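Subject: PKP2 protein

B.,
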Amino acid sequence: RNMSSAGPEGRKKMRECNGLIDSLVYYIQGAIADHEPNDKATENCVCILHNLSYQLEIELPESYAQSIYMQRRNVSNNDKTPGCFGTRSRKVKEKQQDTPLPEEKSNPRGVESLWHSTLIRIYLSLIAKSTRNYTQEASLGALQNLTAGTGPMPFAVARTVVQKANGLPSIRTMLHVSHPTVKKTAVSLLRNLSRNTSLQSDIAREVLPDLVSILPESVPGSDIVCETTASICYTLYNLTQSNSHNARLLLSADGLPKIITISMNDSNTFSKASRAASVLLYSLWSHTELHSAYKK
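Prediction pasted inline below.
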């Protein structure tokens, strides 16, 4: 577990270690089957897999990278345009979201297991069944790692989590736990998932009111709550930016007063959340058909 967090070279060596990933997955599957998701060994195994999934898209071996990204060659660099919130145009993002992964192997081995739907379902099962905070956080964190980035793999994993494995109810439960880092990781995962336009309606319907409910009523003092609040605002931004129905849903969940309060704070400890709330407000105002509702 310590070695798996030692940096890129350590991760690479461990991913290449024959039988290691397969053994970890096998052990966790056995623990779930035996209804023992809370043992320390399971926590260790999941934490190792969490670390080995970090920057996986960037650090993939050449052979896997060619196989996964061969369908991206039609996405031209000419489609990139500068913009306020990133350098990638919507056109590029939509093309990437439509790019499927090569067909999944029914019996994955080694590093292939790290993004396979079997392991995604294992993480979701542990999120639902384990009461151990580190196990919950590592499972959420592994899914967060796998859904980071804009390539076809993160978007394929996101679709599996939301649509194929029905993972949103389990993730939503984690928004209401008392452990701050578990909550923060759950929100960060939802932020990644919400970048996928084809999943935004499902996510908004399932968790938007919950996201609004965990926004602080007043300015929180701790850094971790500040970061969580900023992530919530950016998730809501993704969900409402191009969807006035979702913006209306935010309004009906009484989110506007909270967002205004957060945006008006200028103290250094809260500037990250304040900026995120301001970006969200600016985006919400772009739905001109909702102006009269906002004013009320």
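Confidence is low (pLDDT under 50) at residues 71-100.

T.
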